[in-house]
Amino acid sequence: MPALRLRHDPGLWVLSELPRAPAARKTFRDPADRRGGRAARRRCRSRRGVVFGVDRTKTRRSRGELERIADDRISGRDDCAVDRGRIRICIRRGSAGGLACAIRATIERLGISRSVSSADGGPWERERTERAQGLQRARVAPVDQYVGRQGLHPLATVPREDPRTAREGLKLGVYRAEYIWIDGTQPTQKLRSKTKIVPDGEKPPIWAFDGSSTQQATGDKSDCVLQPVFVCPDPIRGGDNKLVLCEVMLVNGQPHVSNMRRANVDMAKRFEEFDTWFGIEQEYTFFEGSRPLGFPDTGFPAPQGGYYCGVGADEVFGRDVVEAHLDACLRAGLKISGINAEVMPGQWEFQVGPLNAPEIGDQLWVARWLLYRVGEDYGVSATLYPKPVRGDWNGAGAHTNFSTNEMRENYDACVAAAEALGKRHDLHIANYGFGIEERLTGLHETCSYKEFRYGVSDRGASVRIPWQVAKDRKGYIEDRRPNANADPYVTTRLIIETVCGAETAGRSRNGSRPARDTKVPSTTRKVAVRS
Questions:
Q1: Coil vs helix vs strand at 367
Q2: What whole-number distance in Å separates Cα of residue 462 and Cα of residue 526?
Q3: Are residues 11 and 148 in the same domain?
Q4: C-alpha 416: how far from its chain's center?
Q5: Does residue 444 belong to any structural domain of this protein?
Q6: How large is the angle between the packed helices 359-378 and 261-270, nearest 10 degrees?
Q7: In which domain, by residue range, is 281 found?
């Protein structure tokens, strides 16, 4: 029985059968092969067939040249070659799974039962061959140390420089956890992330980071702790890799002052009987360099009018990035419910929800991180600044739709919620994102930050009651005041505290659920004025 020789060149694995026919070139001839002539050619012709999708009859025997034919049954990027009767399987920058598959299939097809010799002269017995062949199904580590622990041959590892390793879903024995957290930057906090390698089967543990570099600690006491709170699949790396959203904690176990999530969790538990639902409409603007995407190098584009939910290359800019972001959110398992182009060129929106608190904040922050990360691949950046372009252009908000179990059954509860929000208008404005005065001017579908009013189907109001809600006599309300850069943990905490707190206080005063006036409010009702 013939043996196989396994040879590795930089970026190239070569598996060749030794020898079944005279070599076409001297470099391929084995010193032990003294057979040749017509008998060898007859033996070659008698073994015609297809191995790994390569028809031996296609070999250029007359010139002794190699015939390279792509074989998509191994990989769309792998090559096989046949030289006369000799089989040469070349896997360029290929995976260990592809290598093992090539070896196993060749052995089985040719009926070879002897061991396979590697380039370094070490034996590779059948047991190791079978173990390596299983790597295609089970996934292999590109780390030599890990391979050695598992008793695998080093030649079965994936080249470290191969960027396709993670995307092809090869078994690492570990997974990558991208730890995401919110830093201490003021006036608007930013997202940070770093990668931790975690063994398969283990949950992402707590981790530490340098808080002095994120405005969350001083240099002499720089350690801060990352406490995982929300884990989802990583759609960027794929495979078993994870995105891990974390709370920032102090080393003594207490929440960091920049940790807005913990207060949100406490508030949600306090009023959990209300079963609050949220849906947030996240607006954002793409920038390419220093100008919004779709803006000319000098001057301004055509006035607003045709960009909202538009179609066509002259009115919509960045759709490929938006679709990639939507796909990433869906593959991550986020409850994203829609996308649309907004009023200004390069401005878009996605919606997350309905979800309870704090899940709505968790998923929105991860969706924001994915938006920034996907933008890297397209050379664009996304900003949440509430007024990215001054002048007659719309700002960017994070309109927050909200309901309680009572609002979903009773229209009067919707009206009461809107009125309760008006009583704490100043507090909400102060916590709905930096630069809110630039956006809430009373123009461009906003109500001035100096006043509060609500109304049915009124997008110029502080709080809108959708017309369907007024018609069905139940549903939800939309708080249109939060900026695009508002912290969803803060926004939803304040809404729960204001609306549910007012309802609880009303019940306490009346000893039971208070009777409500069933009169339908006017289209717009001013409730409070801010000086």
A1: helix
A2: 10
A3: yes
A4: 39
A5: yes
A6: 150
A7: 268-529
Residues 466 and 339 in one domain: yes
145 and 22 within one domain:
yes
Plot region of 143 (φ>0 → left; ψ -120 to 50 → alpha; else → beta) = beta
Strand (E) or helix (H) holding 330: helix 319-331
Contact between residue 83 and residue 28 where contact means Cβ atoms under 8 Å apart: yes
- How many domains does the chain fold into? 3
Sequence-ordered strand ranges (E) for 12-142: 12-18, 50-51, 54-55, 67-70, 79-83, 86-92, 116-117, 123-124
Same domain for 206 and 311? Answer: no
Q: Which helix (H) or strand (E) holds 389?
A: none
Structure token digits, residue 526: 């001013």
Give the tens place of pLDDT for each residue, 426-477.
999 999 999 999 999 999 999 999 999 999 999 999 999 999 999 999 999 9
The reported pTM is: 0.67
pLDDT digits (tens, 9 = 90+) for 294-327: 999 888 999 988 899 999 999 999 999 999 999 9
161 in any annotated domain: no
Q: What is the 3-state secondary structure (H, E, C) of 418-445?
A: HHHHHHCHHHHHHCCCCCHHHHCCCCCC
Which of 211, 228, 259 represents a domain boundary (last residue)? 259
Domain check: are 255 and 293 in the same one? Answer: no
- Calculate ∠ Cα 88-92-97, nearest 5°: 90
Query: Is the same domain home to 253 and 378?
Result: no
Burial environment of residue 512 by CB neighbours within 10 A (0 to 12, 13 to 18, 19 or more): exposed
| Residue 168 covered by a domain | no
Q: What angle do CA 277, 404, 493 make, to 5 degrees?
A: 60
Structural domain includes residue 290: yes
With tokens 């981790």, the residue in question is 207
Alpha-carbon dihedral 214, 215, 220, 225, rounded to 10 degrees: -60
286 within 8 A of 318, measured Cβ to Cβ:
yes
Residue 106 identity (one-letter amino acid): T
What is the tens place of the pLDDT at every residue in 157-202? 333 344 445 455 456 699 999 999 999 999 999 999 999 999 999 9
Residues 144 and 241 in one domain: no
